Amino acid sequence: MKWFTFGQMLMQIRIGQKAATPDGRTVIRTSGGLVWQGGRLSGTVVEVRDYLFSDIWTISEDEASLQTGGDREAHERREHEMLVNQYEEARQTFLEERKGLAD
């Protein structure tokens, strides 16, 4: 079993996977974000609060979400494209600013 800090878990969890703490708090990653699963907050979007940073998490596949594997791939492709576009825009701005300073 592999353990993650909250930040590491956010980087690793994929759509359709769930993450759980040793005391049983569970979240699931959906296309709409990270959502609490079970308990009094079930179905609500996770708010990043200080106490989450002191927890360790495990990640596993959510059996009910395995059927939406195609959705996962399409969402991850869009996510990747958006990240690449943002990087390219930031890089272009940086290069233009650097060139302006050199002139």
Structural features, described:
This protein is an alpha+beta fold. Helices cover 40% and strands 21% of the residues. It has helices spanning 6-12, 69-102, and strands spanning 4-5, 17-20, 26-30, 33-37, 56-61. It is elongated and about 60 Å long.
Strand order of the largest sheet: 1-5-2-3-4
**Low-pLDDT stretches:** none
The coarse silhouette is: elongated
Query: What's the rounded overall pLDDT mean?
Result: 90
Q: Count the helices. How many?
A: 2
* Major sheet summary line: 5 strands, antiparallel
* Helix-and-strand structural type: alpha+beta
Radius of gyration: 18 Å
How many distinct beta strands? 5
Spell the H/E element sequence: EHEEEEH
Percentage beta strand: 15-25%
Helix % is 25-40%
Tell me the span between the first and last alpha carbons: 56 Å
How do the helices and strands line up, and which of them pair or pack?
Elements: E1 4-5, H1 6-12, E2 17-20, E3 26-30, E4 33-37, E5 56-61, H2 69-102
Antiparallel strand pairs: 1-5, 2-3, 2-5, 3-4
Task: Pick out its properties.
5-stranded antiparallel β-sheet, 103 residues, 2 helices, alpha+beta, elongated
Give a brief outline of the structure.
This protein has 103 residues and is an alpha+beta fold. It is built from 2 helices and 5 strands, in the order βαββββα.
